Amino acid sequence: MSVHSSANIKRITTHILQEMKDRGEKISMLTAYDYSMAKIVDASGIDIILVGDSASNVMAGHETTLPITMDQMIYHASAVVRAVSRSFVVVDIPFGSYQGNSSEALRSAIRIMKESGAHAVKVEGGSEIKESVARILSAGVPVMGHLGLTPQSIYKFGTYTVRAKEDSEAAKLLEDAKLLEELGCFAIVVEKIPADLARKVAGAVSIPIIGIGAGGGVDGQVLVVHDMLGITQEFKPRFLRQYADLQGVMMGAFTQYIKDVKSQDFPNEKESY
């Protein structure tokens, strides 16, 4: 049986993501929230597109991820799904739509899958939400977990600093990762935790571990696309590598456009009918 790189795959699935971990191929993951951006990200060959509740920050201007609604997440997810032909699309279930009520969690997951056409959902937490995770999985909906810094719990933590530096929290995180695997999650994001702990988690479970601010010893990486492209300049944590300065490029284009309009250079005769 031949082994193919993810670059040759027509459509990424949970099975392919598992094969990538098993053979040591790193998984690439970026966020997207609209059709135009998702089309470019998908064409680049990215493995997973996350329609993150970070849309609350970068698309709507909120301070936290908490305000975004289910309807808004489905709107963003639907736009992304329409653009994608290869990538695996995961959608965050927004805050308040799955915690503490497994029946509501199931309804939320089904709404996202039916109304957006997404391929999986993502939830934050471990043992605290095990009933919700189990209920969603019972309906055949693939679930990605999220441990470590969980932005939906920002008011509980009170800070965006590195999580699980203390032995007790690190031990709980490791146990939660094992629990999520046992329940049937196909992958887990670990955010802003010590690199040694993240490496330990990736070695302790058989499912892919995707890191953000968790070092290189995991099975893949995820970044917010607006951050890594330099569209947002205010957010520059240690873990972020900025691959472009699109804010500078865009500002240059806008200011040149304004200049051309004011000087009557645009439109010229060739640009007129």
The profile of the biggest β sheet is: 8 strands, parallel, barrel
What spatial form do the alpha-carbon principal axes imply?
globular
In sequence order, what are the helices and strands, one letter per element?
A: HEHEHHEHEHEHHEHEEHH
Note the gap between the termini.
60 Å
Oligomer: single chain
**Biggest sheet: strand arrangement:** 1-2-3-4-5-6-7-8
Structural class: alpha/beta
Work out the radius of gyration.
Answer: 20 Å
Annotation field: number of helices: 11
The fraction of residues assigned to DSSP E strands is 5-15%
- Total strands: the figure is 8
Portion in helices: 40-55%
Low-confidence stretches: none
Average pLDDT over all residues: 94
What does this structure look like?
This protein is α/β, with parallel strands linked by helices. The chain has helices at 14-23, 35-43, 55-58, 70-83, 102-116, 130-138, 154-157, 167-183, 195-204, 225-228, 246-262, and strands spanning 27-31, 48-51, 88-92, 120-122, 143-148, 187-191, 209-212, 220-223. It has an 8-stranded parallel β-barrel with strand order 1-2-3-4-5-6-7-8, surrounded by 7 helices. Strand 3, helix 5 (102-116) and strand 4 (120-122) form a beta-alpha-beta unit. It is globular.
